[in-house]
Amino acid sequence: MRMFRKTGVPVLVCALLILPAAAPGQAAGPLGRAAAPASDGPDPIDFAVVVDQSESLSDEDLTREVEAASLITQGEISARSRAAVIGFGSSEKPGQSPVSEVCALTTADTAGRQRLSDCVQQLAHRDDKKTGPGTDFPAAVRQAVDRLAEKGDKEIPKVVFLLTDGRLDVSDSPEYGTDEASRQANGAKRLTEELARARRESVQIWPLGFGDSIDRAALTRMAEGGFRGGCADLPDAAPKMRVVDSSAQIDKALQETFAAARCARVAHGTVGKPPTDLSVTIPPIATDGSLTVSKHDPKVTVTYYDPKGRRVPTQGEFDGSAFETSGQDGPVEALRVKNPLPGKWRIHIEAPEGHRDREVAVRAIWQGRLRSAVTLSPASPRPGEEAVVEVRMQTRRGVVITDPEQLTGIRVSARMTGAGFDPVVVPLADGGKKPDERAEDARYAGRFTVPATASGELRLTTEMTAPGITSDRRPLHARVSQGTPVLTAGLSVDRGDVHPGQTVSGTLDVTNNDSGPHTLRLSLADQPPGSALRISPTTVNAAPGGSSTPFTVTLGPGVPLGELSGRITVTDLGDGGRVVDNVFLGVRVTAEPTLWDRWWWAFTGAALLLCALAAVVAVRLRAGAGRRDLSGVRLELRAEGQRPDTLTIRAGQSPGGEFLFGVGRSGDGAPALRRGGGSQAYRLRRTTAGQLLLKPPGGQERAIGQGQPAGLADGFELVVGDARTASRSGRPGRDGQAPGQGGGPFGRRRVPGPRGPRPEGSTDRTGPRGGRTRGDASAAPPRRGTTPPDPNF
């Protein structure tokens, strides 16, 4: 421990200096961020939430249905989607209707979501005068299909989410017949007809049942009787029924069903009672999302913090993201985020006293809308020629997806269309088999043969299918070459890491078999927003024969970090703008190196040198401190006609190599040595060379020799002895036979004064003075005037 106290600080400093050297040049933090165009959002859907209000439901069940309906209307990620909310029961008496449309078809923009939050609350107020107690599925499906089919874009998916706790019950509805049996049969027949109509109108039905009275077979018929085409060619995107044990589970189940129907994903967060902090994680691939907070009580307030710990606005833009909040006065609140920062979001929940008894849950529904960057080689293939398609995906920020785990379950294909042939579908893979160069690098490649009948323009569109991922389906335009082209070209780009503002070098190799020069244009495509890439030169004059032209691509200061998206295209202006080659940039953008990144080796070397010097100094200080230590030194006080007093300095009593003592008298007037002494203290210290120095009170410091009397005030003398010095000089210890054997360490036996009791205040003194040690028959009594030996010396 003593060594650590003396050397710990230099060691700690060295550790702190050396630790950063473990990873020089590594940049941390999220990828660069750039705002995306406001119009580039997720595909919309039109949907209706149809809620059972039959008498079999308890008030608590109805409240939970309302909250579940609020959850998906507030959590919708597209501001262009439309939603309607419909309650249903039956019609048994005059003035009753089997359906109650509480929310007309409403666009889910900021204002529309707030209207939906308000009107959906009407579902909780069941009016027996207006709606009967039964369960009229046919009327509910008819009303939903009517709303979704009117004035709708046929290209937009249409979905019905139906919540129920029971089975078809129109036994008391006169419109279905005159008796109970015929009414039920006619009701089942009418439901089949309405489902067929839904299929014709391309309306999906997703039933969700809860409780133990569910007719599973009927729910399955509803799911399979409507439109079967989903938002993608995925098993989970096809309509299916689902049943949960109770209404307490429908919020989670309905949101998962909703995500499957609109090709999104749900991230489940934490749960807790206010006041508390909840969290949910949004993955890097997400480009649009909504954080939904099931708070149940409008008195609960919510504050949102992004993964960097910054409070985000409830409306407006912040750090490349756009925010919209709705439902703050309802049971479900949602924050819709465009271009969310990936990572763990914190949601702070507060509530006044009396409103803290219910658990609040947070989830995120999200979608990754990816852009495809495509290259075709050869860039202008001939009819009957084999060509290779390569595709990379990137987010709206221009960040290329390089982690294959983010694309788990994805299926990628390219569809080639053009004049003179039927569409050709090209499967693409990332398995490392030719033409794919490397497995699982998030680059997908495939090979196909251009139809021999192809002529004119080619249109290549990438299609990707995965849960939660959609493609923008932007086409790559190419043109079929007729005959052998007179000019061929090849682009190559230097690979490696670059920093924002730096340049990437490349080479354009051209073979021109024509009789005259051709003008070639170099251009950039699919570059990330805000990156401000520039290529130079933009045109090249290719003379007949072979030539090689260097070019550079300069990165703007705002280019996103990570794999750089974008491709270079070279076109032959002398051949009608024919594309002769294209290539991905394929470089990685890293942060500008810091001073540490540039000079870490120098800092590390200096730190190691400093550590070595510190270690040497620490060793020398410790050695010097050991040489100056007075532990074991014995002081003997002498005076003519007085008996002596002795004091041995113990370990720790001489900090810094100094020991203070005073000379006084005990209660019986005998001279005595005491530690300390105040202003009249003597100071004894040892130099690193081992010399002993004595400084009297108010006097000059002087050297004293071991075993040699040194005069003190009032006629006293001090004799100093050191056991370590005696041992080094060959003097025996207390059991040895030194000259003057049996006496003190200095061979002097004068002890003035008679024997008496031990003085008070003395410390570490040796055995009884002037007498034989008890129990030691062999000990001879000392002669008068001698000092008994010190057993500690």
Descriptive notes:
- The chain has 793 residues and is an alpha+beta fold.
- The protein contains nine helices and 42 strands.
- Strands 7, 9, 11, 12, 13, 15, 16, 19 and 21 form a nine-stranded mixed β-sheet that branches.
- Helix 1 (2-18) runs antiparallel to helix 8 (595-628) and helix 2 (59-75) runs parallel beside helix 7 (250-261).
- The longest helix is centred in the C-terminal third of the chain and has 34 residues, at 595-628.
- The protein starts with a helix and ends in a 65-residue tail after the last helix.
- The model is unreliable at 1-39 and 726-793 (pLDDT under 50).
The poorly predicted ranges are 1-39, 726-793
Terminal residue distance: 26 Å
Characterize the biggest β-sheet. Answer: 9 strands, mixed
| Beta-strand content bin | 25-35%
* Proportion of residues in helical segments: 10-25%
Structural class: alpha+beta
**Backbone CA Rg:** 46 Å
**Chain-averaged pLDDT:** 82
What characteristics describe this protein?
single chain; disordered C terminus; 6-stranded mixed β-sheet; alpha+beta; disordered N terminus; 793 residues; 9-stranded mixed β-sheet
